[in-house]
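User: Here's a protein and a ligand (guanosine-5'-triphosphate). What would the complex look like?
Assistant: Let me lay out the input and then the predicted complex.
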Amino acid sequence: MQKKGKFDYILLETTGLADPGAVASMFWVDAELGSDIYLDGIVSVVDAKYALQHLLEEKPEGLVNEAARQVALADVLLINKTDLVSTKELEDVRSVVRSINGLVKILETQRSRVDLTKILDLHAFDSLSVKSLQDKFTTSNSHQHLDKSIVTVTFEVFGNVTDEDLHLFIQNLLWEKNVKNKSGVSMEVIRLKGLVALDNKQEQVIVQGVHELYDLEETQVKWEGEKLNRMVFIGRHLDKDILKQLFESALKR
Ligand SMILES: Nc1nc2c(ncn2[C@@H]2O[C@H](COP(=O)(O)OP(=O)(O)OP(=O)(O)O)[C@@H](O)[C@H]2O)c(=O)[nH]1
């Protein structure tokens, strides 16, 4: 790529089978490194007609369903070709997408025609997303449609956590992968978002994670009243009760 001056925006289209998480991780640069580039957000497109077939396809043990992974990582999801399906079929696609990713913003399109302001400048990875995280947090937890499927798990817990205990909680999940579900299978977190209360900070802190990368960012928003930590996990083999218990035990007594 050669161009004088700065780019306004870089849109990177991956191949159909790509894992967007791996690509996103490369661009998710630490703000302190002073890079001009920041990761704005991940947009995925599914075809209304074939989405269910692809999303619900069971892959052999150990293999991931790429379509479901792309939905899991998306900040915005276009359900395209809505003219080719009935209202009921569209509703089914929407509900499966929602069960995989409880945070994603869904847009329904024909010929992928979309208002650009809805897919650019998302700020999905920075502290500006606090408001939207709060708004979205009302989403309920997904019920699993398949045992091995990707789901969204959310919970809220009052309290404070120390910096160290929060890092330990996240690292056990993302790095050590030693947090297991009730069947003894390690939980696999693909995307993580949270609003947390650190014991030594007045402001709300946002946690973001993609694959094994994660980041804590202090926001400008001060806590008011009781501090309610909100966590969202998207991944496989997740168990809400165990995750919540673990987070609770990380909180300061
Ligand atoms: N009926 C209908 N057809 C569409 C729509 N959007 C795209 N198509 C048609 O679908 C065909 C395939 O286009 P796409 O599915 O967009 O193909 P693509 O995503 O570029 O293909 P890959 O990158 O290989 O996945 C083309 O003939 C398009 O004109 C739509 O909303 N409705």
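Summary: The chain has a mean pLDDT of 88.
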